[in-house]
Amino acid sequence: MIRALVLTLALCPVPVSADSVVAARTIRSQAILTPEDVAMVPADLPGALADPDSVIGQESRVVLYAGRPIRAADIGPAALVERNQIVTVYYRQGPLNIAMEGRILARAAVGDRIRVMNLESRNTVTGTVTADGSILVLNALP
């Protein structure tokens, strides 16, 4: 009987306490998060990130309020290009490569897809932000 009780207790799941990342203070959107901006709480908050290192250095996409959990959708890579910024747009399709200037229509980070207005034709195209801040448009022609 005692063996059965010990075996039952050994097989029962033990509640695990997980830590969650919360904002240490109110943080405006588009701010880069620093170690002073985040805190850990000993609770498993739904949707909250658990690793503070994954938050530090990221940009807040929304206002983060003090004591509230930081979720993956609330943060992202820091924006590399700003709205109305003039950048070089590269069109590539097969052996055809064209470079021209364009105006960014929204803020974006490396790897984001973004709309850009061609300054000469005034047409709008969608491309990907590259590490050097230029925009790459693949298969732009039908």
Please give a structural write-up.
This protein is mainly beta and 142 residues long. It has two domains: 17-76, Alpha-Beta Complex (Type Iii Antifreeze Protein Isoform Hplc 12); 86-138, SH3 type barrels. The protein has one helix at 2-11; strands at 20-23, 38-41, 59-60, 75-76, 86-93, 96-104, 113-118, 124-129, 135-138. 7% of the residues lie in helices and 32% in strands.
Write the CATH fold name of the largest domain.
Answer: Type Iii Antifreeze Protein Isoform Hplc 12
Total beta strands:
9
Strand order of the largest sheet: 5-6-7-8-9
**Topology pattern, helix = H, strand = E:** HEEEEEEEEE
The average pLDDT value, as a whole number, equals: 88
- CATH H-level superfamily of the largest domain: Antifreeze-like/N-acetylneuraminic acid synthase C-terminal domain
Global outline: elongated
Low-confidence stretches: none
Q: What gyration radius follows from the Cα positions, in whole Å?
A: 23 Å
What would you say the CATH architecture of the largest domain is? Alpha-Beta Complex
Total discrete domains:
2
What percent of the residues sit in helical stretches (DSSP H or I)? Answer: under 10%
The number of helical segments is 1
Could you tell me how far the N terminus lies from the C terminus, measured between alpha carbons in angstroms? Answer: 77 Å
The portion of residues forming beta strands comes to 25-35%
- CATH class of the largest domain, please? Alpha Beta
The largest pleated sheet is described as: 5 strands, mixed, barrel
Q: Which structural class best describes the helix and strand composition? A: mainly beta
